Amino acid sequence: MMIYSSAIALIAIVAYRFKSLTGLGALTAFLIGVLIAYFFEVQGLIILALFFITSTVLGRLKASSFTREKEQRTSLQVLANGGVAAVAALLVPFFGDIAVYLFLASLAAATSDTWATEIGRRYGGKPFHLRQISKDEIGRSGAMTIIGTIASLAGSFLIAIAGFALFSLPAISIVIITLAGFIGAFIDTVVGAFIQEERRCVVCGDLTEDKHHCERQTVFGRGVPKITNNVVNFICTSSAALITLLFV
Q1: Where are the domains of the chain?
Q2: Report field, pTM of the whole predicted structure over 0.85
Protein backbone atom coordinates (compact mmCIF):
# COMPACT_ATOMS: atom_id res chain seq x y z
CA MET A 1 0.00 0.00 0.00
CA MET A 2 2.92 2.34 0.72
CA ILE A 3 4.15 1.91 -2.87
CA TYR A 4 0.69 2.72 -4.24
CA SER A 5 0.37 5.79 -2.00
CA SER A 6 3.79 7.07 -3.05
CA ALA A 7 2.96 6.61 -6.73
CA ILE A 8 -0.38 8.39 -6.31
CA ALA A 9 1.30 11.25 -4.44
CA LEU A 10 3.91 11.60 -7.19
CA ILE A 11 1.25 11.74 -9.91
CA ALA A 12 -0.76 14.33 -7.94
CA ILE A 13 2.34 16.49 -7.45
CA VAL A 14 3.27 16.27 -11.13
CA ALA A 15 -0.32 17.16 -12.11
CA TYR A 16 -0.14 20.18 -9.80
CA ARG A 17 3.24 21.28 -11.14
CA PHE A 18 1.98 21.04 -14.74
CA LYS A 19 -1.15 22.99 -13.71
CA SER A 20 -3.57 20.17 -14.46
CA LEU A 21 -4.83 20.33 -10.86
CA THR A 22 -5.05 23.06 -8.25
CA GLY A 23 -3.38 22.41 -4.89
CA LEU A 24 -6.64 21.34 -3.26
CA GLY A 25 -7.56 19.45 -6.40
CA ALA A 26 -4.30 17.48 -6.18
CA LEU A 27 -4.95 16.66 -2.51
CA THR A 28 -8.48 15.48 -3.32
CA ALA A 29 -7.19 13.36 -6.21
CA PHE A 30 -4.59 11.83 -3.88
CA LEU A 31 -7.21 10.88 -1.28
CA ILE A 32 -9.53 9.37 -3.91
CA GLY A 33 -6.58 7.50 -5.41
CA VAL A 34 -5.59 6.04 -2.03
CA LEU A 35 -9.16 4.84 -1.42
CA ILE A 36 -9.30 3.20 -4.84
CA ALA A 37 -5.86 1.63 -4.38
CA TYR A 38 -6.81 0.20 -0.99
CA PHE A 39 -10.01 -1.49 -2.17
CA PHE A 40 -9.36 -2.11 -5.87
CA GLU A 41 -5.56 -2.40 -5.71
CA VAL A 42 -3.50 -1.89 -8.87
CA GLN A 43 -6.43 -2.78 -11.16
CA GLY A 44 -8.39 0.22 -9.88
CA LEU A 45 -5.40 2.51 -10.23
CA ILE A 46 -4.94 1.50 -13.86
CA ILE A 47 -8.59 2.34 -14.59
CA LEU A 48 -8.24 5.67 -12.79
CA ALA A 49 -5.01 6.40 -14.70
CA LEU A 50 -6.74 5.67 -18.03
CA PHE A 51 -9.35 8.31 -17.25
CA PHE A 52 -6.94 10.91 -15.90
CA ILE A 53 -4.17 10.54 -18.49
CA THR A 54 -6.45 10.46 -21.53
CA SER A 55 -8.47 13.40 -20.19
CA THR A 56 -5.33 15.44 -19.58
CA VAL A 57 -3.80 14.66 -22.98
CA LEU A 58 -7.01 15.42 -24.88
CA GLY A 59 -7.47 18.65 -22.93
CA ARG A 60 -4.07 19.84 -24.08
CA LEU A 61 -4.37 19.04 -27.76
CA LYS A 62 -4.15 22.02 -30.07
CA ALA A 63 -7.60 23.20 -31.08
CA SER A 64 -8.27 23.79 -34.77
CA SER A 65 -11.37 25.94 -34.43
CA PHE A 66 -11.89 26.25 -30.69
CA THR A 67 -9.55 27.84 -28.19
CA ARG A 68 -9.78 27.87 -24.42
CA GLU A 69 -7.31 28.45 -21.63
CA LYS A 70 -5.84 25.36 -20.05
CA GLU A 71 -7.98 24.71 -17.02
CA GLN A 72 -6.79 23.47 -13.65
CA ARG A 73 -9.20 20.96 -12.14
CA THR A 74 -10.39 22.04 -8.70
CA SER A 75 -11.30 19.76 -5.80
CA LEU A 76 -14.99 20.05 -6.74
CA GLN A 77 -14.24 18.98 -10.30
CA VAL A 78 -12.21 16.03 -9.05
CA LEU A 79 -15.07 15.00 -6.74
CA ALA A 80 -17.65 15.43 -9.51
CA ASN A 81 -15.74 13.00 -11.72
CA GLY A 82 -14.20 10.67 -9.15
CA GLY A 83 -16.42 10.92 -6.09
CA VAL A 84 -18.78 8.10 -7.13
CA ALA A 85 -15.77 5.87 -7.87
CA ALA A 86 -14.47 6.56 -4.36
CA VAL A 87 -17.85 5.68 -2.82
CA ALA A 88 -17.88 2.47 -4.87
CA ALA A 89 -14.50 1.59 -3.36
CA LEU A 90 -15.93 1.95 0.14
CA LEU A 91 -18.77 -0.42 -0.82
CA VAL A 92 -16.45 -3.28 -1.83
CA PRO A 93 -16.55 -5.04 1.60
CA PHE A 94 -20.35 -5.08 1.47
CA PHE A 95 -21.22 -5.65 -2.19
CA GLY A 96 -18.15 -7.20 -3.82
CA ASP A 97 -18.44 -7.40 -7.62
CA ILE A 98 -21.43 -5.05 -7.68
CA ALA A 99 -19.14 -2.32 -6.31
CA VAL A 100 -16.68 -3.12 -9.13
CA TYR A 101 -19.43 -2.48 -11.69
CA LEU A 102 -20.39 0.80 -9.99
CA PHE A 103 -16.75 1.88 -10.00
CA LEU A 104 -16.19 1.04 -13.66
CA ALA A 105 -19.48 2.54 -14.84
CA SER A 106 -18.87 5.85 -13.08
CA LEU A 107 -15.42 6.23 -14.62
CA ALA A 108 -16.72 5.03 -17.99
CA ALA A 109 -19.23 7.90 -17.87
CA ALA A 110 -16.58 10.42 -16.82
CA THR A 111 -14.29 9.26 -19.63
CA SER A 112 -17.15 9.19 -22.14
CA ASP A 113 -18.20 12.74 -21.27
CA THR A 114 -14.64 14.08 -21.34
CA TRP A 115 -13.77 12.45 -24.67
CA ALA A 116 -16.99 13.76 -26.23
CA THR A 117 -16.28 17.27 -24.97
CA GLU A 118 -12.60 17.53 -25.87
CA ILE A 119 -12.71 15.71 -29.22
CA GLY A 120 -16.07 17.18 -30.23
CA ARG A 121 -14.87 20.72 -29.56
CA ARG A 122 -11.76 20.28 -31.64
CA TYR A 123 -12.86 18.15 -34.55
CA GLY A 124 -16.66 17.96 -34.52
CA GLY A 125 -17.51 21.25 -36.21
CA LYS A 126 -20.60 23.22 -35.21
CA PRO A 127 -22.62 21.21 -32.70
CA PHE A 128 -26.37 20.58 -32.50
CA HIS A 129 -27.98 21.96 -29.34
CA LEU A 130 -30.66 19.67 -27.89
CA ARG A 131 -32.87 22.37 -26.39
CA GLN A 132 -32.71 24.83 -29.26
CA ILE A 133 -32.93 22.06 -31.89
CA SER A 134 -30.44 23.93 -34.03
CA LYS A 135 -26.73 24.41 -34.65
CA ASP A 136 -24.95 26.29 -31.88
CA GLU A 137 -21.60 27.76 -30.91
CA ILE A 138 -18.75 25.37 -30.08
CA GLY A 139 -18.21 24.70 -26.38
CA ARG A 140 -21.74 25.30 -25.09
CA SER A 141 -23.28 22.81 -22.66
CA GLY A 142 -26.06 20.67 -24.11
CA ALA A 143 -24.63 20.55 -27.62
CA MET A 144 -23.56 17.42 -29.53
CA THR A 145 -21.59 16.51 -32.65
CA ILE A 146 -21.34 13.23 -34.54
CA ILE A 147 -17.57 13.06 -33.92
CA GLY A 148 -18.08 13.83 -30.22
CA THR A 149 -20.75 11.13 -29.91
CA ILE A 150 -18.45 8.53 -31.48
CA ALA A 151 -15.67 9.65 -29.13
CA SER A 152 -18.09 9.35 -26.20
CA LEU A 153 -18.84 5.72 -27.06
CA ALA A 154 -15.13 4.98 -27.57
CA GLY A 155 -14.17 6.45 -24.19
CA SER A 156 -16.77 4.37 -22.40
CA PHE A 157 -15.71 1.25 -24.29
CA LEU A 158 -12.06 1.80 -23.29
CA ILE A 159 -12.93 1.66 -19.59
CA ALA A 160 -15.29 -1.29 -20.15
CA ILE A 161 -12.73 -3.42 -21.98
CA ALA A 162 -10.01 -2.54 -19.47
CA GLY A 163 -12.31 -3.42 -16.57
CA PHE A 164 -13.24 -6.72 -18.21
CA ALA A 165 -9.57 -7.65 -18.57
CA LEU A 166 -8.28 -6.38 -15.22
CA PHE A 167 -11.10 -7.60 -12.97
CA SER A 168 -11.81 -10.88 -14.85
CA LEU A 169 -15.45 -9.97 -15.38
CA PRO A 170 -17.84 -11.88 -17.68
CA ALA A 171 -17.90 -10.76 -21.33
CA ILE A 172 -21.36 -9.23 -20.94
CA SER A 173 -19.79 -6.66 -18.60
CA ILE A 174 -18.27 -4.95 -21.64
CA VAL A 175 -21.74 -4.23 -23.01
CA ILE A 176 -23.20 -3.23 -19.62
CA ILE A 177 -20.40 -0.83 -18.68
CA THR A 178 -20.04 0.65 -22.17
CA LEU A 179 -23.76 1.41 -22.40
CA ALA A 180 -23.99 2.66 -18.80
CA GLY A 181 -21.09 5.06 -19.34
CA PHE A 182 -22.42 6.24 -22.71
CA ILE A 183 -25.96 6.78 -21.37
CA GLY A 184 -24.56 8.60 -18.34
CA ALA A 185 -22.70 10.98 -20.65
CA PHE A 186 -25.86 11.52 -22.71
CA ILE A 187 -27.77 12.33 -19.52
CA ASP A 188 -25.03 14.88 -18.83
CA THR A 189 -25.77 16.49 -22.21
CA VAL A 190 -29.53 16.55 -21.63
CA VAL A 191 -29.15 18.11 -18.17
CA GLY A 192 -26.64 20.58 -19.62
CA ALA A 193 -29.12 21.59 -22.31
CA PHE A 194 -32.26 21.98 -20.20
CA ILE A 195 -31.31 22.44 -16.55
CA GLN A 196 -27.71 23.57 -16.08
CA GLU A 197 -27.18 27.17 -15.08
CA GLU A 198 -25.87 29.37 -17.88
CA ARG A 199 -24.46 32.81 -17.24
CA ARG A 200 -24.35 35.79 -19.60
CA CYS A 201 -21.30 37.89 -20.34
CA VAL A 202 -21.97 41.57 -19.67
CA VAL A 203 -19.46 42.56 -22.36
CA CYS A 204 -20.17 40.34 -25.40
CA GLY A 205 -23.55 38.93 -24.39
CA ASP A 206 -22.53 35.26 -24.89
CA LEU A 207 -24.01 32.52 -22.72
CA THR A 208 -21.35 30.60 -20.81
CA GLU A 209 -20.97 28.29 -17.81
CA ASP A 210 -18.02 30.37 -16.55
CA LYS A 211 -18.25 32.97 -13.79
CA HIS A 212 -15.92 35.30 -15.68
CA HIS A 213 -15.89 36.15 -19.38
CA CYS A 214 -14.16 38.95 -21.28
CA GLU A 215 -12.36 39.69 -17.98
CA ARG A 216 -15.65 40.62 -16.30
CA GLN A 217 -17.95 38.76 -13.90
CA THR A 218 -20.91 37.15 -15.65
CA VAL A 219 -24.56 37.35 -14.56
CA PHE A 220 -27.25 34.67 -14.38
CA GLY A 221 -28.73 33.95 -17.80
CA ARG A 222 -30.96 30.82 -17.77
CA GLY A 223 -31.37 27.36 -16.28
CA VAL A 224 -31.53 26.42 -12.62
CA PRO A 225 -29.28 28.47 -10.31
CA LYS A 226 -26.46 26.49 -8.65
CA ILE A 227 -26.79 23.56 -11.09
CA THR A 228 -23.22 24.06 -12.24
CA ASN A 229 -21.06 21.92 -14.49
CA ASN A 230 -19.73 20.11 -11.41
CA VAL A 231 -23.27 19.14 -10.40
CA VAL A 232 -23.99 17.96 -13.95
CA ASN A 233 -20.80 15.85 -13.99
CA PHE A 234 -21.81 14.24 -10.70
CA ILE A 235 -25.23 13.44 -12.17
CA CYS A 236 -23.41 11.90 -15.15
CA THR A 237 -21.23 9.55 -13.10
CA SER A 238 -23.90 8.62 -10.55
CA SER A 239 -26.46 7.94 -13.29
CA ALA A 240 -24.11 5.50 -14.99
CA ALA A 241 -23.48 3.71 -11.70
CA LEU A 242 -27.21 3.41 -11.01
CA ILE A 243 -27.89 2.09 -14.52
CA THR A 244 -25.57 -0.87 -13.91
CA LEU A 245 -27.75 -1.91 -10.95
CA LEU A 246 -30.48 -2.77 -13.46
CA PHE A 247 -28.27 -5.50 -14.94
CA VAL A 248 -26.03 -6.88 -12.17
Answers
A1: 2-244
A2: yes
